[in-house]
Amino acid sequence: MSRLFKMNSFIAMKGNERFNEKTELGATPLMLAAKNNDLKSCLALVEKGQDPKTTTDLGASLLHFASVNKRHGLEIISHFLGQGLDLSEAKDVDGEEPVIYAIRAGDLNLARNILRLQNGETNLLLFFVARNDLEMVQFMHAIDPESIKQRDEKGNSALHLAAEFADLKMCEWIIKQGVDVKTLNALQMTALHCAVLNVNYGREIVRYLVVRLKLTVYAKNSLSETPLHLALSTGNFELAQQLLDFGVKVKRNKSLVKQRDSNGRNALHIAAECADLEMCKSLIEQGIDAKTLVRVRKSSALHYVGCNILFGKPLVAFFVGLGLDLNKMDKFLYTPLHVALINQNIEVAEEMVKYGADFRVKSGHFNLLHYSVIGNELKSVEFLHSKDPELVKELTLLGENALHLAAKHADREMCKFLCEEAGVNPFSSNEMNSNVLHLAAANEKHGVELVEYFATEKGVDVHQRNVLLETPLHHALDKENLAVAEALLRAGANINVELAQNSLLHFCATRKKLQSARFVLEKNKDMINAVGSDGMTALHVAAKSGHFDLCKFLVEQGIDINAEDAFNNTALTYVPFY
């Protein structure tokens, strides 16, 4: 059976009608351009206001449509990944990712390249093993039987991945294809080590590997951990008990309970993080001092209670009753309440406040609300605001308010809450006279949506200059956050804005930002020979800074290498010689 016949059989088997429906219904002009045209066509539509983040009613994204474009798909996907889109989050209503669309379209090379962009791997069979998609695994095996023998970058075989992420049916099929049951990965882990990490199907896989295939339960990985060690350290107590039921022997040694792990934690610290009250009581009865601190962090058991979402609430009163201080800071200036809020463990945070935790405590530059904003922990911010509405009004030592911090670190929902619920002024500036758009330029993950929120919905000035006379667009180019730069231009920013008589291309050369220089010239090719202060071109500036790649790029774009500045010097005059 030929490879082409297998491919066509698969596509027919999976149903062309549904696939065609998902790549046609509700498609925007930008999606159709991604499907049928080139990157230039897509960028032209973005310039006209088309949103790359839009999805159809069937959940198909621009990335899905580009995945069926055999000629230009990879270029389009690569570009928009740099603009904030994410392959790992792109799933349609059937749970299908762009890589599957490429396979459906009959382009395995494109599918492999998409996978490489997504996670650095190119083995499609291993990818579908980890997705527990046996039908796709069998199809990929029919196309390329050798791929089942390959390993990922961590040395995992198909069986390792199946044991950790898939079900028993997948494991059995892989073993039937000849994969060695006793194979080890780069960390010297067996399939049994991986199986105890499998929350959904681990129990049946562990039974199969131990009872049917007789894998040893005492094998140690490169950290000298057996499967039982891993089950306990990851909190998978059901599988730990299963291993004990299968006869795993544990050496009885009362001194073990007081030993510490590689992070300096004893058993009580670990129990405070993931176990219940009875476990903590039992450990104390066996002689562990409740007030013992972790060696490096100097954190107490109460700090770890902050991480314990399932069992933490009653542990607060328990450890406070034993004399632990809720307001004691660790080496990193975190109190237990800090830890609870970082984990958005609101039930435990409420209990800590009830027993005396200070929610107005400051650590370094920030109060607790500031920390929660920086971590983009909206539930914690809402909790603190309900306790004290004045917290949101406090400034950091650098003169920034909560919204300034949110613009740099958080998402639209956080900023919306601070503006519309907590009453923070979106037009406020920090001590550098930078507004929220300047600050959002540093926000790689959420910057685009923040520009749309602040500039479009709130009317924040995209042209405002700070004390250095820089606009938000200057900041975005300095950070090489080109997705934000694009969003600022859509919001009305001026690509021809000048700073001290210098163009944005001069600015990029001064800051040694090659990718930003490319972006600027894509928007305005006429800027290539712009003359700035002292009669210098961008090539003069790049030469002074010794940035060879930028000089090379500017020359390739046609800049005049013989242009002289106000001092009659060409760019070559400024090239540093070492």
From TrEMBL:
Q: Which domain of life is it from?
A: Eukaryota
Q: Sorted alphabetically, which keywords does the UniProt record give?
A: ANK repeat, Repeat
- A GO BP entry: RNA processing
Intervals holding ANK repeats: 25-57, 154-186, 223-255, 263-295, 332-364, 468-500, 534-566
PANTHER family in UniProt: 2-5A-DEPENDENT RIBONUCLEASE (PTHR24141)
Q: Give one GO term, molecular function aspect.
A: RNA nuclease activity
State if Repeat is listed as a keyword: yes
Q: What is this protein called?
A: Ion transport domain-containing protein
